[in-house]
Amino acid sequence: MLRRRIQALRLRPEAGSTLNELLVVGVVLGALGGIAASSVSGLTGKGRAVACKAEKQTVEIAYQAYVANENTKPATVDDLVTAGYLNAEPAAANGITLDATGAVTATGC
CA of 70: how far to CAs of 46, 62, 99, in Å? Predict the structure, then answer.
């Protein structure tokens, strides 16, 4: 009778998980989360650089349109906004400016 009871206990499947298994799963999930977070942060930096270059190109096109229509050079980016060639001044963080020769520079790119 005792042998049957021992055999029945041996053949019974385990219920639940051990603490070690749960710890391993937690470590693996944490490592995957760290990898995902670092790759996403790299993408946002690239996105800012691309947005800055796009704003610079938009200002260059607005500058060329201003010169073609007004037969004069704008002094600042604000002149392009005032004349209606830009909807709004580019983000200040990009530092987009015009110089006397008409070159558009962006310090944030």
Answer: 36, 12, 18
pLDDT classification of 88: cutoffs 50, 70, 90: confident
Residue pair 82/89 in contact (Cβ under 8 Å)? The answer is no
Closest CA to 109 of 41, 50, 62: 50
Amino acid at 59: V
Domain ranges of the chain: 58-109
Helix and strand element counts for the chain (H, E): 3, 2
Per residue in 41-51, pLDDT (tens digit) is 777 778 888 88
70-77 long-range CB contacts below 8 Å, 24 or more apart? 73/98, 73/102, 74/98
- Please, which pLDDT band fits residue 12 given cuts at 50, 70 and 90? low
